[in-house]
Amino acid sequence: MNPDICCRCAHGGPTCCHHSPGEERFFFPLPQAEQAALRASGLVREEDFLAEPNHPEFLQALERLFPGAPVTRCFPEGATHLRLATQNGACVLLSPQGCRLPRHLRPYFCRIYPLWSIQGRLALFHNPRCLAYQKSPHPQGMLKLMGCSADTIHDHVATLRQLLFEV
C-alpha cells in the first residue's frame, strides 16, 4: 500500500482515523492476534486499547461487512470487544504524519481502508474526508492510488474474517 496518500491526508486535517463524537463506537474490533502483535511491538500501550460494548448497530455493521459470519456468537450483545482508543475523536495512534505504526503492524482494517471485499466483490467505504476517496471514489482508481491489488484486499478481508470468527 502506498503510504504517501495517507500521510498527505493526515497533514490536511481530519482523516478516516477521526470520528465525530459518538461514532467512535464503530471503530473496527481488534482480533486477539492483532492485539497480541500490537502489545508485543512495544509501540502500543495498554491504555491505547478500549473495551467497547457490542451494541446492536455495531453488530449490524459487522453482519453487513461479513455476510453469513457468526457475528452474535462471537460478539454477543451486551459483551465487549477491544478497539483502538480515541482522543478528541481521533485514533490515539494518529500523529500529524499519519499512523505512528509501521504499515506491517497496523491492524488489517487500517491497512486497507477505505477498500473492502464482500463476497469476492471489491467495495469502497464512502468517506469524503479521505484524500484518496476525494481523488478517486471508485474501487479500481482507489487500488491504484493506494498502490495495491484487489487480491491484497480480498486476502486481508479473508484474514480478518478468520481472525474474528473462527474460534
Reconstruct the topology from this structure.
Layout: H1 3-12, H2 32-41, E1 49-53, H3 56-65, H4 71-74, E2 80-84, E3 86-87, E4 90-91, E5 94-95, E6 98-99, H5 108-112, E7 115-118, E8 121-124, H6 131-135, H7 139-146, H8 150-165
Antiparallel strand pairs: 1-2, 3-4, 5-6, 7-8
Commentary on this structure:
This protein is α+β, with helices and mostly antiparallel strands and 167 residues long. The protein has one domain (3-165). 41% of the residues lie in helices and 16% in strands. The protein is built from eight helices and eight strands, in the order H-H-E-H-H-E-E-E-E-E-H-E-E-H-H-H. It has helices at 3-12, 32-41, 56-65, 71-74, 108-112, 131-135, 139-146, 150-165, and strands at 49-53, 80-84, 86-87, 90-91, 94-95, 98-99, 115-118, 121-124. The strands form four sheets. A two-stranded antiparallel ribbon has the order 1-2. Strands 3-4 form a two-stranded antiparallel ribbon. A two-stranded antiparallel sheet has the order 5-6. The two termini are 29 Å apart. 29% of the residues are buried.
In short:
The protein is an alpha+beta fold and 167 residues long. 41% of the residues lie in helices and 16% in strands.
Report the biggest beta sheet as strand number plus sense, adding barrel if it closes: 2 strands, antiparallel
- The backbone outline, from C-alpha atoms, is globular
Distance between the termini: 29 Å
SS content category: alpha+beta
Q: How many domains, in number, for the residues? A: 1
How many strand elements?
8
Average pLDDT score: 87
One letter per element, helices H and strands E, the order comes to: HHEHHEEEEEHEEHHH
The whole-angstrom Rg is 15 Å
Q: Which consecutive residue ranges, at least 5 long each, have pLDDT under 50?
A: none
Helix content: 40-55%
Q: Provide the spatial order of strands within the biggest beta sheet.
A: 1-2
Strand content: 15-25%
- The number of helices is 8
